[in-house]
Amino acid sequence: MAEFGFNEQHQNEVINYMRFARSKRVLRLKTIDSCFEELKDSRLVEETFTVDEVKEMLDGLQVVVRGEVEMELINTAHTNVLLLRQLFSQAEKFYLRLQSDISELENRDLLEQVAEFEKTDFKTPDKKNQETSKPKLAPLNEGGVSELLNKEIARLQEENDKLKTRLRTLESQTMSALDDRSKAERALKDLQKVQGDQQFAARSQEIGSLEDTVAALKVDYEKSLSANSVSHKSLQENLISAKHDLLRVQEQLSLAEKELDKKFQQTAAYRNMKEILTKKNEQIKEIRKRLQRYEPSE
């Protein structure tokens, strides 16, 4: 079987199977021959037969021969399935996936090569070869496919270790980025709190000063009422004017507060803090995307 590229072990396996198939074929042919002999012995005892009698005998013979041939074909197909089962079972133990090309089963050149090999009558090997050619599925040697499998397993384990190391690095970077983000947020809140306290103190001082002024005017107004009724109208106008001034100042304070907030947002410290938070958020998003490629959510 050198034309098929078989080694000695596989060649012996093929020889054993072909011997088995030939023995089954010879046995079935003998059965068919016996059908004809039985017909001759049991029915062909007269010298003349009618057409109907001949037709009846041929029909009966056809049924018997057809049944024998069909049984042999079915048995051959089932036998081939059992042979494939042995081969596939052995391959799966070594994590191999065998494939077959059904079209090659009708390759006339290969079929002729098999026929030529069969004509050699399977040259009988010596006793040692017969012992090694017994129908036994031997494991593959360590220098062949098994070695390749071991190398592949080692490569996959090494790649897995690298992925685990990379994952731990990414986790460490993620935790560091989260810590930096927390620190930046706390610093921003502290800055905003200090700025707000300063603004609140300034507004409180201005309002207190205005309230003191209003109180003083009110006292003066009351004194003026008791001292001179003529100045009542003037004091009342002064009080109204002071109240208007108070409302105007409060409005100016509100505008000043908004302007102060606007200026604070334009300060370098605020912009830097906001830029740091933006960068940290982008880093966290990128790290999470990379983590999802290594640990997809189930």
UniProtKB/TrEMBL annotation:
Any one annotated GO CC term: cytoplasm
UniProt key word Cytoplasm: yes
Span list, region Disordered: 121-141
Biased composition regions of type Basic and acidic residues, renumbered to the chain: 121-134
Chief location category: cytoplasm
Coiled coil: 146-173, 232-290
Record keywords: Coiled coil, Cytoplasm
Pfam family, one: Leu_zip
Location in the cell: Cytoplasm
Function: Regulates ciliary localization of the BBSome complex. Together with the BBSome complex, controls SMO ciliary trafficking and contributes to the sonic hedgehog (SHH) pathway regulation. May play a role in neurite outgrowth. May have tumor suppressor function.
Family under the similarity heading: Belongs to the LZTFL1 family.
Xref: PANTHER family: LEUCINE ZIPPER TRANSCRIPTION FACTOR LIKE, LEUCINE ZIPPER TRANSCRIPTION FACTOR-LIKE PROTEIN 1
Assembly, per entry: Self-associates. Interacts with BBS9; the interaction mediates the association of LZTL1 with the BBsome complex and regulates BBSome ciliary trafficking.
Protein name, per record: Leucine zipper transcription factor-like protein 1
Organism: Pagothenia borchgrevinki (Bald rockcod)
Upper lineage: Eukaryota, Metazoa, Chordata, Craniata, Vertebrata
